[in-house]
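Hi F.,

I've been meaning to write this up properly since the lab meeting, where we talked about keeping a consistent format for the predictions we share between groups. The idea is simple: the sequence comes first, exactly as it goes in, then the structure tokens exactly as they come out, then a line or two of notes. No screenshots and no reformatting. I'm using this chain as the first example so we have something concrete to point to.
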Amino acid sequence: MRRLIASALALMATTPALATTARVAGLSGNSAFTDDTDVFKFPSVISDTGDAVNLNYTGPNTVDGGVSWMGQHMLWLQRDSALPDGTGLGDGSPFTMTYGQGDGSTGFLARASWAPETFSLGGAWSKGGQARETSNFAAGGDIVSAKAGNSTKYAITAFAQSRDLTADSHTTWDATVAIQQDVSNVVRANYRMGPRWGDGQLRAALSIGPGLQFTNTKGGNAVALDVPAANLAAEYELREWLVIRGSSTVGLQLAVADVSKFGDTREFIAGSGGALGAGLKHGDKARFDMSIRPAWLVNGPAVLSGTPNPMFATVSGRILL
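Output, unedited:
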């Protein structure tokens, strides 16, 4: 992250160099915070990340990392990552390779994933930069083929997403259509908005809005409606080299298992969750972030609780070359 400048509001809206995946996890993915991982959502911002090496650990045999170079290229490798969202096809732990290029105005991603008898190709195109106040748009998709007995099944996912950031507010939306051959058809959409704050050391944002998922299968149609969901995330610089962060999510969802039997299959589900994290940095050259499991703070390590309970959900490192 670059050194603090006079206004924390400007800091929130400017690319924080050396941001990592673990920082995003600690903030529960709040869309009002910009960081270097935005290249996966909007590849046009690749030019703003600098030349760097990245490495993330999120569990046994789950490692991903990559490099960015020449101010507009990136290459990312992932092991035991999930296939594109909404596919529901294939077994095993896939390996994914992603290449992206962006010049701060437009950009694209191309990716391929493969696992035993499963393969996918996809990508995205976007426009917009990573500025103090910015607007971004991206669209793309993936196609997956997987062996199912003696036949091959296919899944197609298409998406679009957008964000609009100002010094003191944000709005974002995303929409996805996923078609799984002989399995299901899914439509998802989310809209979020809210304020952003800062006072010199603190960065905080509230993201609130509705979400909808419609699922069509041979057994019927199901609906899940967030009415709405809200996430409050913040991080605070205790020292020039130490940042702590946390987030909390609450929401109420209307779930309908079968639209044709709305009165009999509907229910309201209240949900909540949270995340904690911390970050260390060495000047403007290196960053080390941790996303902490809240259950670890309650139950303690295995020696106290008697059950496996890793302290960290995600550990990430980034070195600027």
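Notes:
Helices lie at 8-13, 21-26, 262-265, 294-299, 302-305.
Confidence is low (pLDDT under 50) at residues 1-17, 81-91.

If this format works for you, I'll send the rest the same way.

G.
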